[in-house]
Amino acid sequence: MTHLQTRKEGDEGISNVEFCTRSDETRRNRRLQSFVDCYGVEKPSLSTFEQTKRYTKKKCSSVTFECCINILLKRIPLFRCLKTYNLRKDLFGDIIAGITVAIMHIPQGMAYGTLTTLPPVYGLYVSFFPVIIYMIFGTSPHLSLGTFAIISLMTAQAIDSVSFEPSNIVTQNGTIANLTGSSSVDIKLHAATTLALLVGLIQLSLSFLRLGFLTVYLTEPFISGFTTGAATHVFTSQIPSAFGIRSPRGINGAFKLPRIYVKLIQSIFSHINWISTAIAAVSIVTLYIAKYLNDRYKSKIRIVLPLELVLIVIGTTVSHFLQLHSKYAVAVVGQIKRGLPAPSLPSFDHTDKLLVPAITIAAVSLSISISMAKMLSRKHTYKVSSNQELLAYGMANTVSSFFQCYPSAGSLSRSAVQEGSGGRTLLVGGFSSLVLGCVLVALTPLFQSLPMACLAAIIIVNLKGLFLQLKDFMLYFRISKLECILWTITFVTVVLFDVDIGLYVGLSTSFFINTVRTQRPRFFVLGQVDNTGIYKSTTNFPSVQQYPGIKILRFDESLYACNAPFFKRKFYELIGMETTEEPIVSCRRPETFDTKTDVLLKYIILECSPFNYIDTVGAKLLIQIFNDLKKRGIQLYLTECRYEVRHTLDIMKFYEKTELHTIYVTTHDAVMTAVAALNQIPTTNN
Amino acid sequence: MTHLQTRKEGDEGISNVEFCTRSDETRRNRRLQSFVDCYGVEKPSLSTFEQTKRYTKKKCSSVTFECCINILLKRIPLFRCLKTYNLRKDLFGDIIAGITVAIMHIPQGMAYGTLTTLPPVYGLYVSFFPVIIYMIFGTSPHLSLGTFAIISLMTAQAIDSVSFEPSNIVTQNGTIANLTGSSSVDIKLHAATTLALLVGLIQLSLSFLRLGFLTVYLTEPFISGFTTGAATHVFTSQIPSAFGIRSPRGINGAFKLPRIYVKLIQSIFSHINWISTAIAAVSIVTLYIAKYLNDRYKSKIRIVLPLELVLIVIGTTVSHFLQLHSKYAVAVVGQIKRGLPAPSLPSFDHTDKLLVPAITIAAVSLSISISMAKMLSRKHTYKVSSNQELLAYGMANTVSSFFQCYPSAGSLSRSAVQEGSGGRTLLVGGFSSLVLGCVLVALTPLFQSLPMACLAAIIIVNLKGLFLQLKDFMLYFRISKLECILWTITFVTVVLFDVDIGLYVGLSTSFFINTVRTQRPRFFVLGQVDNTGIYKSTTNFPSVQQYPGIKILRFDESLYACNAPFFKRKFYELIGMETTEEPIVSCRRPETFDTKTDVLLKYIILECSPFNYIDTVGAKLLIQIFNDLKKRGIQLYLTECRYEVRHTLDIMKFYEKTELHTIYVTTHDAVMTAVAALNQIPTTNN
């Protein structure tokens, strides 16, 4: 008792003397079971079936006709938009934004259309139909659906694998060269629309299953690494168009990109078209400078100049009057179909082969679109629901697959413009589609002489934003090593292998990292701060006091299978019971540490506040440690166990296998109990 | 002030009156910054490079010649075993156990040898060489390395894929039927030894990189589901031998097993060999009954009967004298090479094709072996080091690959016998190998007439233990739903697809589950228990008291990217600021809840004790919420933040973006500060 009384009295802490002199009954009250008996409620232990029944009953009873109508209308946000539409405030901004975005859609649609290896007009269809559908079902007035570089590239890979099948090649008069003909386009188009339908159906089913929450696993470092990696593929795909050479085909497998570059460089040396190269170079430089100037003086001129459209107009005019295609063999866009496509059922020929690419494209498109929508919603403080967005993307892809569209996604650059040019409601999409419809019906033949090099230039300049994400590496490197590793692994896998492999490896890595993070948590010895009820680690707070014969430990992570071996090893190490094997050859090892075993360890208190859950392995380990310590004459107390943890311990029969009074409400209670018990055996106390 | 004074005085808690009358200085001390200034230490912020340098320096300074020798000797546990060997106590048990296990090795080696589609003698080699190597490097005296059903099956699949290559088939006189000849065995043998070498090298490199800790990810439910699933494949592979039919080949892809069964049943109807079937049936039934009786009366007879060896002897004798092979076309073992194989370098022909199977086999073999070694070590309380075990398996596979061995692993049945028959030290392996060496040198020709059906019977009966693991499903179903899901997914994938796909899907699932577990944690409103400093959830402890104007919350999981959206939604829901959209059609929804907003919410206290870490997304969210609440005139306090969390908040400039005094040491401090502040504004208090 002397030892305790000499310690100075804390300001707010419970006085030790006071506590120790209290009756046993009070102290026992702080043992968890008594505490729960006194203050807690026993949860009614309903079976899962019973719970479901009650839930259904409750839900069903509150269903009225109006509610149903409301739920239905809630799925079509356009109604709310129309209901609250303010003609005076919203209309002007919406029209301006709609026209501006439509002007961006034209060059981008054609450029990304060629990226899919289909004729450019199909890109324009994708700029038209999904936008209308998104207007009806979408929630973000700023997100611009339509063509997107990475999705277009993935579509190209998917339809390539189908159209290059032996069975298809054989039907084309036996020669592969003939595949550039119109029937090859048909095969590709069928594959592309099937792909869009599959992507749409996958997204719709995700929405109906209310699995929108799954998008939280697509974390920022993952998406950043993934899109940056994919940008390199998009860039590579534009090199042939820029240099006027043929794109290498049939290169797959590991280290695809380096091998493609070898082929590309060979091709450039032998078949370069200098005129194409010059057009591309001039276009890129002018576009880049113009964009830079536009960004810089945006605040002064207050409008977004349609630079890309200007480039296209100039490029087409020059190409047409200098007859670049016929005289200098510069690749041009060529004949473009006029008018809107008639609705037709997508084919189901290659569903089996297209399913896996469709899953990948669905995942990529929704992850990019939703993360963009959420970013915009944070800026403008409106609510974006993952499930509703999934429904919108799903409907957009499904419906537009009947109109010869390939898969669509939200585009970062267009969304930024849609937001910046003053779009306020979902109707922006309607105005944009109106303009595009006019272009499709009347103006497409004008683009016939447009050089492909111009389109390549537009894509390459637009990649700038994605490549700027390389800076994220440095950001994550500084902030969090694990997030940096995730970024790097995703990026490297996408670059060295392929977009789809990168997606799956990146996702697995992100789950793995969540596991790894719990592997080597800190395991502290705690001590009392002055005379209060606060216990802090001896490492961070060296002035804390430890009681002789008592060790207070805290393991800063939930205890479960994956870190249980580490817990066990470290636990015994911290209480000085490491089972060190003696050296085989005698060795003069310098003894640097001095074992303070002047007082026998009698009590170990494990603060369980960091345990958010505990699994069967963890519970078994605690029982095992409890019994092992008991054999050595040491009592283990657990403190501050959460409900979840107590529940698992209960299922694992922890209370039957150990003593009932092992769990205390707070660490301080357990310490005070231990101190009181130690004082009854004066020999152990100094 | 009146409100607080009416509350009844707690037994041990800090009295509110007392607290509020205390000077401001005391209270401020409990703000975290002052607390850290007063008691804590600033960690020296060393760069990673500096830390590594110091660590290396420290390590290097303590290296002496004796230490090096000790480390080297530590890697060869046989030395320690020999040093402490007690001839009188250990020798007899070791010899008996060695002979018993060797007697088990003979039938199992031959049976599993045929399972790899190689001649049975190669199984005997695997029962011989790896055992010797494990004796030198292993740590468990009870683990019996050698042939193992699942590894043998996976070896069969790997070498099948190589030996069935067109290039190999063409060299065999153009006919596939010729492949059963000796040159086909050569190709398979080359592939098998290459595989063993690769597996060994992979395991060795894991050991050198000290990656033994990775085995913790192979959790119990995963291993149980995996091995049970693999057992169905092993069972299926034995049906042809049992019925005397040819095994179906070249079936791969999804739903492999059902398709194999269709083929098998067709084969059985057309080509069944009734004598084989009878032999198999009789063998299985006798063996099963004999094993059952042996298990039951083990305690009385106190020896393990070599039932399988007896079966083999009887089978061989009957087959030889009735001339079953020549007269009834019963498949028999046939010519067996006599003597030990001469060492030869494994070929490196198909390294590229065998690498992926080798990784899978390495992972499966080490996971099964280590989990078995750990199970045995728990029973006999000796220490098994993962890295040392990896070294032992790696050396065993690498060295024995030079002696025509295929990959080995620990066997559950033999290990149980090795333990049960009294083996005490690593020398058991030596005695077992001695017996097997004699058999290989002298007795192999005797097994020539052994029917394959007998070997199939031995394998099938030995699968009993693995199939009994089906009960684990019920166990996990009762204890933990997530572990049950992991078991089921692993089992189903292995059964429906294949062993390797199941391995990867199961592993991914287990990581995914670790992530999912943190997705929807409980989010509690806390209240004060009587008048103490203890705060408990209002759900589990309904008698707790809440202060008007103050809300105390606790989110029972670390806050990071994957659960940040859930946190945000739930947080605003709990403080009653849910952004509910009004219905589009007016609807008579029954207002069931009554919003108690008679007192304005002024303080929100978030107890951060469950946050074991927080990532950038989580930190950003906290800053965002802090600023959002400030706009609404609400103050957010964080309490009980761990060092890790404070560190991340610091990096994310939390203190610069919020006010300095946001973090309190304990929840009680924050509550008392808030109460005191509220009392200074009497209007908000009733």
Automatic annotation (TrEMBL), chains A, B:
Q: Which Pfam families match?
A: STAS, Sulfate_transp
| Major localization class | membrane
The protein's name in its UniProt record: STAS domain-containing protein
UniProt membrane topology term:
Multi-pass membrane protein
* Lineage of source species: Eukaryota, Metazoa, Spiralia, Gnathifera, Rotifera
Q: Where is the STAS domain?
A: 540-674
User: Which keywords, in A-to-Z order, does the entry hold?
Assistant: Membrane, Transmembrane, Transmembrane helix
Q: Where are the transmembrane segments?
A: 91-110, 122-145, 195-218, 268-289, 301-322, 354-373, 425-444, 450-470, 482-507
Cell location? Membrane
Q: Which PANTHER family does the entry link to?
A: SULFATE TRANSPORTER
Gene3D superfamilies associated with the record: STAS domain (3.30.750.24)
Q: What is one Gene Ontology biological process annotated in the Swiss-Prot or TrEMBL record? A: transmembrane transport
Gene Ontology terms, cellular component aspect?
A: membrane
